[in-house]
Write a structure and sequence with these properties.
By secondary structure, the protein is an alpha/beta fold. Helices cover 32% and strands 21% of the residues. The protein has a seven-stranded mixed beta sheet with strand order 15-16-14-13-19-20-21, with helices on both faces. A six-stranded mixed beta sheet has the order 3-2-1-5-12-11. The two termini are 28 Å apart.
Length: 505
């Protein structure tokens, strides 16, 4: 893949206190759209601009997006923020992970649709690779890339570029000068194995030429200029969305952890400079992740996954019609003091950590004639909270670390009933992020560390100030009894669809 990457020789400011109130531009590309904002040296997010770029589903299990439309949106929102700011110190990028784009190196034009991380059309390829002793999941980039190459370049003779969304944004902002990805994004492509280099076994199995791959760079470090923007500010930070959220919530010390409760739920825990000693999945169902890379050194973490979180609240609203809005779930659930021993298992799309059962399905347990609307809604919120406790316990088991408190962001972090239930389920304080989406702040911290706005990871950890801290209200004995009831309900939701339960990636 060409020469070894080295950090750009960019003048390094000496310290936060000497900088004044500088701003970092952050471009944050999610599953549904593109957001840009400025973040100042006090961590204040301002000048937020957003353009919706929705994925499409042309067939069952297919998820595609228009990469050209995404690039146009990136330039538009970034340019709007630049106009509002006048100038920025640098640029940070956060992005949905594992979504896959292939484009022509000479023209910069995508050779097919972008393939979303949720796309499952390559399940058959993943199963065929398993028979060869090669494990890769359909939500990783590897088989998506191979599929796009098979369609656009079956002979593997074209000069093409592969990138996840961070790569595409950097290419767009640099007018095609940068073909890079950071360690956090490279680690979830399925193409890195257990090491820190591209896995030649996987490349050979999928006929992926090394020439299409981006150069892996630091998550925090100046990599080039955003020449598509006024003043060509340096691009100095890149990270996948969950890792950016981890950093944005100040979890830069081992044992600090956050959960982002959005459509699904992702717990990420900082582990330190030693990679977890399991190759793909720990005994409790977590995955090793490269949390970030700075000055050539990776800080590792683990990730635990809940497949259904906020989508269960959307189900109450859109399909059952028993609440008018997602926000109304808080008020309706608070109309009862408990669920009356009704339990809901949020497995509408299967269950991730710790059991990894794609055939599990959503389940209500304990409904009686006296169960009403408040109990049904509260049961959903408490079920998601207990899944959060599942994730935390799995992370502690797989890492051996003690997670003393849990930090949360995402849409559900604004739901007071849910956050209180989460504190009770995990039996420790829950610290609510001061910003609903901490990804933007994390990307700013990464860029800012490279530019001297924040000194290092310790300065980022020290900057954390939660919006509020919610303490558990139940005794340890009561919590243990409730967890036992939860585990019984969870067990009943497993293996609902045996054919899917047999799949394991």
């Amino acid at each position: 893949m060409g020469t070894e990457w080295r950090p750009c020789e960019w003048p390094q400011p000496v310290g936060h206190s000497d900088r004044g109130n500088v701003s970092i531009l952050v471009v944050d590309v999610g599953t549904s759209g593109v957001r840009a904002a400025s973040v100042d040296s006090a961590g204040t997010i301002d000048n937020v601009h957003y353009i919706e770029v929705l994925p499409t589903s042309p067939a069952p299990a297919f998820v595609e997006f228009d990469a050209s439309a995404m690039a146009s949106a990136v330039l538009e929102v970034a340019g709007t923020v630049m106009e509002a700011c006048g100038s920025v110190e640098g640029v940070g990028i956060a992005n949905q992970r594992a979504s896959t784009i292939v484009w022509d190196r000479a023209t910069g034009e995508p050779v097919g649709p972008g393939i979303g991380w949720q796309d499952l059309r390559t399940v058959g390829t993943c199963l065929a690779l398993q028979a060869q002793g090669i494990r890769v999941a359909p939500n990783e980039s590897a088989t998506k890339l191979a599929m796009l190459l098979d369609l656009a370049d079956p002979d593997r003779t074209r000069d093409l570029c592969f990138g996840t969304v961070d790569s595409w944004v950097a290419w767009t902002l640099s007018n095609g000068a940068l073909h890079v990805t950071d360690a956090s994004n490279a680690g979830v492509t399925g193409l890195r194995g257990t090491g820190t280099a591209w896995d030649t076994t996987m490349l050979d199995a999928l006929r992926i030429p090394a020439s299409v791959l981006p150069t892996v760079v630091d998550s925090s470090g100046v990599i080039g200029e955003a020449t598509a923007l006024a003043g060509a500010p340096p691009i100095a930070g890149m990270a996948g969305d969950q890792q950016a959220s981890l950093i944005g919530q100040g979890c830069t010390r081992p044992g600090l952890a956050k959960v982002t409760f959005g459509t699904g739920g992702m717990l990420d825990c900082c582990v330190g400079t030693q990679r977890p000693d399991f190759p793909r999945r720990g005994g409790a169902g977590t995955f090793p992740i490269a949390a970030w890379q700075r000055q050539g050194r990776i800080t590792w973490g683990v990730e635990a996954i809940m497949l259904s979180a906020g989508t269960c609240v959307e189900w109450l609203r859109d399909d059952l019609g028993i609440i008018d809005s997602a926000a109304a779930s808080d008020a309706v659930a608070s109309q009862c003091v408990d669920t009356g021993d009704v339990w809901f298992v949020p497995a509408l799309l299967g269950m991730g950590t710790p059991v990894w059962d794609f055939g599990a399905r959503g389940t209500y347990v304990g409904i009686t004639r006296g169960t009403g609307r408040p109990e049904m809604v509260r049961a959903v919120l408490e079920g998601i909270a207990h899944r959060g406790a599942d994730l935390l316990e799995a992370a502690e088991t797989d890492t051996g670390l003690d997670i003393a408190s849990l930090r949360v962001d995402g849409g559900m972090s604004a739901n007071a009933t849910f956050v209180a239930a989460l504190a009770d389920a995990v039996g420790r304080p829950v610290e609510v992020s001061p910003v609903t989406e901490a990804t933007t702040l994390g990307a700013a911290y990464l860029a800012g560390m490279a530019l001297g706005v924040w000194a290092d990871e310790e300065a980022v950890a020290a900057a954390w100030t939660p919006a509020r801290v919610v303490e558990p209200r139940t005794s340890d004995a009561r919590r243990s009894a409730l967890r036992a009831r939860w585990l019984d309900a969870r067990q009943r939701a497993l293996h609902t669809i045996p054919e899917l339960s047999s799949l394991d990636f």
